[in-house]
């Protein structure tokens, strides 16, 4: 008599033709469109992450750690002038005033030592020039730019041989 096959021998092996594996992997392998979409998504995410690291400068932490720490020196020094209130010239009977707070920018500390003794000359130059202005001369950004340039020229004349790099308006009010 022939032997009867055991139940183990009769069951076909997993993955044999005609039977699909079960679970998530089985669904992916069985559906080629889904497999292509998943692989494309993984590649896209990995590429995006790599691009983000590249653009944000990742990976240079060792080079930054080895760089010597140099204390930053100030590149400019500032001298605050007292607030000035000046009466402007007007054709009308109405008085017009300008209130100005200014800071002078210089390249080094030594220039400040030269400017301080000459401060009365600087203030006189500013006020005599500004008294001749009209309110219309200060209208708009072009008017303030011209005022700034003229004040810088006058302060450089007053403090020569020192040099002022810029005149900075901290506050300007026209009334």
Q: If you had to describe this structure to a student in words, what would you say it looks like?
A:
It is a single chain. β2 (84-88) and β3 form a beta hairpin. This protein is 46% helix and 17% strand. It has two domains: 19-66; 77-174, 2-Layer Sandwich (Tetrahydropterin Synthase, Chain A). The longest helix is centred in the N-terminal third of the chain and has 24 residues, at 32-55. The mean pLDDT is 81. Strands 1, 2, 3 and 4 form a four-stranded antiparallel β-sheet that branches. The protein is built from seven helices and four strands. The chain has 175 residues and is of the alpha+beta class.
Helix/strand layout:
Blueprint: H1 7-10, H2 24-30, H3 32-55, H4 61-66, E1 77-80, E2 84-88, E3 96-106, H5 109-115, H6 119-131, H7 140-158, E4 166-174
Antiparallel strand pairs: 1-3, 2-3, 3-4
Q: Which band does the percent of strand residues land in?
A: 15-25%
User: Which spans of ≥5 residues are poorly predicted at pLDDT below 50?
Assistant: none
State the helical fraction: 40-55%
C-alpha Rg (nearest Å): 40 Å
CATH architectural designation of the largest domain:
2-Layer Sandwich
| Broad structural category | alpha+beta
Q: How many helix segments?
A: 7
